[in-house]
Amino acid sequence: MRFRPLHSSVAAAAAYKPHPKARLLRRLNPISSMAADPPPPQLESEEDPDERFCAALDLCSFSDPPPLSPTEPIGRPLSGEIRVDRAWAHWNRLGSPKLVVAPMVDNSELPFRMLCRKYGAEAAYTPMLHSRIFSETEKYRSMEFTTCKEDRPLFVQFCANDPDVLLEAAKMVEPYCDYVDINLGCPQRIARRGNYGAFLMDNLPLIKALVQKLSQNLQVPVSCKIRIFPNLQDTIVYARMLEEAGCALLAVHGRTRDEKDGKKFRADWNAIKAVKDAIGIPVLANGNIRHMEDVYNCLDHTGADGVLSAESLLENPALFAGFRTMEPKENNADEIKDNGGLDQADLVVEYLKFCEQYPVPWRMIRSHVHKMLGDWFRIHPQVREELNAQSKLTFEWLHDMVTRLKELGGGIPLYTEEANTAARAATCNS
Ligand SMILES: Cc1cc2nc3c(=O)[nH]c(=O)nc-3n(C[C@H](O)[C@H](O)[C@H](O)COP(=O)(O)O)c2cc1C
User: Fold this and answer.
1) Which of 92, 183, 214, 309 could connect to 289 by a Cys-Cys bridge, CB 3.0–4.6 Å?
2) Would you say the CB of residue 246 lies under 6 angstroms from ligand 1?
3) How confident is the model at residue 264, as a pLDDT?
4) Are 359 and 53 in contact (CB under 8 A)?
5) Which residues are tagged catalytic?
6) What one GO molecular function would you report for this record (predicted)?
């Protein structure tokens, strides 16, 4: 399932108890200190060990006071040309990031973003945050939104259906991000029930009100992530409406609301190109990005200013550094060495190190380990069963598991095109 229902996180937040490190946390985490409602969160939930943080929250701080936002709140609608110029000026100030980690509930959290940034990602989205719960619940804020100085450029994504509530939530994060993003693409049942995400496509005046509210009252620009309509003209009218309402960057997922299965339905790059041609603000393309060749083809085809990748990054967080996955094979350790020595187990180890530095709930770590090592587990299912049987994880156990997997063999090397070409040339010459 694409979107993990929010209720697990919310239930976990509700299970928090006061924690003795509360004062330290408040000092380190300005978002916590802004909240009026003590007590601060407890780190451990007795209900489900996976909801516990993987280490003490005092490590997980917003280390320095955030930089001031570069733009002034405008408080009134701007003319089209000025709006577009401002949108580009902001995008260029950020270095025009082309390779972007897509928003993923429970999966684009801080340690994963940091791992992807290390391997070439130039910007990243947080997972979708629920604006009402975020604005009301300190526990939810502390548990679901963490960042650090190096975690920029950053899009913080909210789902919402009330402009005032959205603004309240957005105000809390604006010092820590470069865009506040509105999720207009979630197609899951939970979004239908909650009346947000792609189901707002049935109520365009509400979408317009959400965008206007943010664009006229925030210092940071507002971005939107949309799905396309079945009819191209509807999509173009929609995109133009968003731009006019004050959206400063548009990410277009080239699938409709009904095309939920990304493996079954190819994203429509023609529709993304049509949107890019129809509006003036920066556009990011989303869908069908499995490796860097796809990135180049997509930018070429759509004329978009950057791409988002989601599912493929989960399997291979080094995608944006040019690494690709290979077919699983038994005992291919030599090949791994030939191709630069990087495999998914190495990425898991690096990810775990980021988690030790930037604690997150164990359920997120568990999810990433499964996704990065999925192919390896298919060769050694007993190791996956052992992992599933661990109701309480530790870093030590996970590191041991990775070592055992490596000893068992069958690793899947990640390779770069250059390494592959060189290997092919060497084979031809020998
Ligand atoms: C695990 C998972 C969680 C996701 N959560 C979100 C989310 O929080 N917000 C959002 O806008 N899209 C979310 N998506 C959708 C992705 O951002 C992206 O639009 C979609 O997967 C298509 O990109 P892809 O073809 O690269 O996977 C999620 C996707 C996955 C796989």
Assistant:
1) 309
2) no
3) 87
4) yes
5) 186
6) flavin adenine dinucleotide binding
Closest CA to 13 of 192, 183, 145: 145
Residues in CB range of 71: below 8 A, 6 or more apart? 86, 90, 219, 220, 221
Closest C-alpha to ligand 1, atom 10 = 103
Tell me the mean pLDDT per 10 residues along the chain, length 430.
Answer: 33 33 31 32 54 61 46 64 96 98 98 98 98 97 96 98 98 98 96 95 98 97 98 98 98 96 92 98 97 97 98 97 75 55 93 97 97 94 97 97 92 72 50
Ligand 1: which of 261, 311, 320, 371 to mutate, most ligand atoms within 8 Å of CB? 311
pLDDT of residue 53: 82
Task: Tell me the whole-structure pTM to 2 decimals.
Answer: 0.85
| pLDDT number for residue 261 | 87
Q: Determine the Cα–Cα distance for residues 183 and 257; give it in Å rounded to an integer.
A: 13
Measure 136 CA to ligand 1 centroid, in angstroms: 25
Burial of 93-114, coded b for 16+ CB within 10 Å and e otherwise, reads: ebeebbbbbbbbbbbbbbbbbb
Chain centroid offset of residue 84 CA: 25
Match 């719960």 to its residue by tokens.
133
Full set of structural domains in the chain with CATH = 7-55 (no CATH), 80-316 (3.20.20.70), 323-415 (no CATH)
- What is the Cα–Cα distance from 237 to 207, expressed in whole angstroms? 13
